[in-house]
Specification:
This protein is mainly alpha-helical and about 130 residues long. The protein has a domain of about 80 residues. Helix content is about 60%, strand content about 5%. It contains five helices and four strands, in the order H-E-E-H-H-H-H-E-E. The termini are far apart. The structure holds zinc ion. Zinc ion (ZN) binds next to loops.
């Protein structure tokens, strides 16, 4: 118990970190950015195939923009460069995801949503369209 307390409070600081608003922004950004892997892993385990859910791209976008803010506040050129352009593919994937969802077809037989290019429903075998 004493060693746990020592880990949490080190040098009179929580986790031994010099806490400031900028540090909190950085850690929140880290938390958001890292959580996307848990979301993606959960979605993959749930559907028993590799899946990248829309939430993954939202967490990537918000997390990277938060980390970009942190790196700008810190004036760290390495991390500014790392997060300055990463938002583009996240935004692009969100756009493609939204377009694909809008173009998906619903099976008249069972009501399952199917990919835009599907001619037959993989759930009930009924013809689509
Ligand atoms: Zn169907």
């Amino acid at each position: 118990m004493d060693s746990i307390t020592h880990l949490l409070w080190h040098g009179g600081k929580f986790l031994g970190i010099d806490w400031s608003v900028v540090k909190v922004v950085g850690w929140v950004g880290n938390l958001i950015f890292t959580s996307r892997f848990i979301v993606q892993w959960y979605a993959t385990e749930k559907s028993k195939r590799v899946v990248v859910p829309q939430a993954f791209w939202w967490l990537s976008l918000v997390g990277s923009l938060t980390l970009l803010c942190y790196s700008v506040f810190q004036k760290d050129s390495v991390f500014i460069f790392a997060y300055a352009f990463s938002w583009f593919p996240y935004l692009r994937n969100l756009t493609i995801h939204r377009r694909n969802k809008a173009a998906s077809t619903v099976c008249g037989g069972c009501g399952q949503k199917n990919p835009p290019q599907a001619n037959y429903c993989p759930n009930c075998g009924g013809k689509i369209g």
